[in-house]
Amino acid sequence: MGLVRQVAIIIASISLFTFIALFGALPRLRETPIGWAYRFLRYTIPRWLSKVDLWLCGGRCTAMSKRFGHYVMYERHPLILVFYLTLITGGTYMFIDGAWSYLTSFERIIVILAIPTPYLTLYLAANANPGIITPSNNRTALTHYPYDHINFFPSHICRTCHLPKPARSKHCSICRACVGRQDHHCVWLNTCVGQLNTRWFLLFLITTNLFLTLGTYLSFLCICRVAEHQQMPMAGLDRKTQITIFGIVLVDQTYTGAVFLLASICGVLSYAFTIYHAYLIWAGTTTNETAKWADWKDDIQDGIVFIADMDTESDASSTSSNTDNLPTSSRSRRRKRSSRTKKNKARGARPSEEEDATDELSNWPRKSEQKVMRIDDGEGPETLPRGWLWRRVEKLEEIENIYDLGGWRNLLDVVFPKKL
Ligand SMILES: [Zn+2]
Ligand SMILES: [Zn+2]
């Protein structure tokens, strides 16, 4: 039992660590134990280590690891992609070497059919154009989504590409291009996940899930068959004895046991990642946009976000009739917010005629029906633009997401993206 417990602890620890590394930075998990653990691992521990390094080696190790970290995270390279391919190829080799003789003919056919799928879908996802915005397709890209005047504003020019930024696009400093409906830069694929390749990215995730599920199931089956073969049948025994026998055979059958552990651990993470992206599609948003919504949520909690609906448009005298005093919040968050607020104010709460004309380019079924604004440090609600009936936003749900057409239509938009 001791061995099984040790193996279970190792599996749980590796899974937890990887989960924190992959998901800890997500805005939704920011104020949860996962987010705290992420910041502890990402910032606190390196800070301690750099102090020790400064004392022992004059900071040389820190400088080297920073350079390597920057290369891995912020430069375009195939290291992670090669690591993934090595993992899949190595795991497949170990499975065939260790478990092949315990498989039935039908199971062998399934394995032969399954082996090419992760390679094929990885190739499709990594090689597809994510939706790079170029001078020739820029005008078309501008027609795909309207500006919501909340997270995306017209007349923004990318400082690197020198092109108007379409709504939902983002400049990727690693790909060195603006990408339509950019979700995130994927280090596994060594490219961005955007408007044109999200469908291949999803297919890649789904086939990886199926591949890992098959690997977990068949290696589990083979371990049970080996136990039977070695005169240790598990049928009819109590659960505790079954787990003990399983643990003994798992360690004895090194290759099959390693595949079982590898496939099950990676499977949990892969499923979690897929569920997260399924949620994003269902909610009509992207990883990039969730960060923007998380900022709005923080500001709503501080009581500095105001909204005016189109149908409450009224004369100047009614402006900000139901607003009250602002609460105070931490200085650091205020500073960060201040720059965002000023940017919004520069745009104005109400789109200009020129901006309206830009919006007309889009044939998206939903248009913005609301005006949303933050107010700056030290300023009261009376500074909000006149001509609208402002009310304080209490919940993020009060702000509409015009990119959300409902789960099914959102999925269709991802699977059949408009051509660039
Ligand atoms: Zn750009
Ligand atoms: Zn990128």
Automatic annotation (TrEMBL):
Bias class Low complexity marks the residues at 315-330
First-tier enzyme category under EC: transferase
Which segments does the entry list as coiled coil? none
Q: Which domain of life is it from?
A: Eukaryota
Q: Catalytic activity, per the record?
A: L-cysteinyl-[protein] + hexadecanoyl-CoA = S-hexadecanoyl-L-cysteinyl-[protein] + CoA
Which keywords fit this entry according to its UniProt record? Acyltransferase, Lipoprotein, Membrane, Palmitate, Transferase, Transmembrane, Transmembrane helix
Transmembrane intervals: 7-26, 78-96, 108-126, 200-224, 245-273
Q: How does it sit in the membrane?
A: Multi-pass membrane protein
Q: List every stretch annotated Disordered.
A: 314-379
Q: Name the EC number(s).
A: 2.3.1.225
What residue stretch is flagged as signal peptide?
none
Record domain Palmitoyltransferase DHHC: where: 154-293
Question: In terms of one coarse class, where is the protein primarily found?
Answer: membrane
Q: Where is this protein localized, as stated in its record? A: Membrane
Q: Name one GO cellular component term.
A: membrane
Which regions are flagged for Basic and acidic residues bias? Answer: 366-377
InterPro entries registered for this protein in UniProt:
Palmitoyltrfase_DHHC, PFA4/ZDH16/20/ERF2-like
Asked if Transferase is a keyword of the record, the answer is yes
GO molecular function terms noted in the UniProt entry: protein-cysteine S-palmitoyltransferase activity
GO terms for biological process?
A: protein targeting to membrane
Spans of biased composition, class Basic residues? 331-348
Similarity remark: Belongs to the DHHC palmitoyltransferase family. PFA5 subfamily.
According to its record, what is known about the domains?
Answer: The DHHC domain is required for palmitoyltransferase activity.
Q: What is this protein called?
A: Palmitoyltransferase
Q: What is the protein's species of origin? A: Ascodesmis nigricans
